[in-house]
Amino acid sequence: xxxxxxxxxxxxxxxxxxxxxxxxxxxxxxxxxxxxxxxxxxxxxxxxxxxxxxxxxxxxxxxxxxxxxxxxxxxxxxxxxxxxxxxxxxxxxxxxxxxxxxxxxxxxxxxxxxxxxxxxxxxxxxxxxxxxxxxxxxxxxxxxxxxxxxxxxxxxxxxxxxxxxxxxxxxxxxxxxxxxxxxxxxxxxxxxxxxxxxxxxxxxxxxxxxxxxxxxxxxxxxxxxxxxxxxxxxxxxxxxxxxxxxxxxxxx
Length: 252
Fold this sequence. Notes:
The longest helix has 8 residues, at 13-20. The protein has helices spanning 13-20, 48-51, and strands at 7-9, 60-61, 72-73, 82-84, 90-92, 98-102, 114-125, 130-136, 139-147, 152-156, 170-173, 180-186, 190-195, 198-204, 224-228, 230-241. The strands form two sheets. The chain has an eight-stranded antiparallel beta sheet with strand order 1-11-10-9-8-15-6-3, covered by helices on one side. Strands 2, 4, 5, 7, 12, 13, 14 and 16 form an eight-stranded antiparallel beta sheet that branches. The protein has one domain (7-243): Exo-inulinase, domain 1 (Jelly Rolls, Sandwich), CATH 2.60.120.560. With 252 residues, the protein is mainly beta.
């Protein structure tokens, strides 16, 4: 199967693409150094996005590849099937709208000064294949990959503006059935995210309002995964606490 090269669209081109997808453009806050890297293997072994900057604190795997454990299927209306495939990947089947899982109470994972790493790919469908809801101290937000028509990335919400309206929003062209390494770093001062080795979000959030976009997606709090009218596949999800040296000095 021929795959189009993944392209990050930045600068003056974003307004045109957001218009095509029916969006309002926000400021772009991205770095495009480094090359895209993927891991197309089927094992749930550690990958490069998970390893980067991981010295000092151990990663904790989230799923065993067989059962949800303490996680639950989120009660979205019109949801698709949730299952694990033969390779141990979590499959969020295409639903009418949202399909997802969440961890009630958030377990014993940290709520600030931590990283989440995972691999995700889009199967069938044309909207977001990975909506990662995460805690930010006592509130929550969602990292969206491929939303609002298939290409929007960003965090919902900051100061009540969702990913299509705040400075984390941008356009990223995702290929179907291609694994993407994803890493999210959450500190009091910043929200940061990477796709493969590209930093896609670097947003200062201290003293700003961090919240969920209103609607059914709020059922994913405090820690959850979902897709929208799209089959999303997730594997190698891990969480770790940051070391003191990794936390911005303004917090220390």
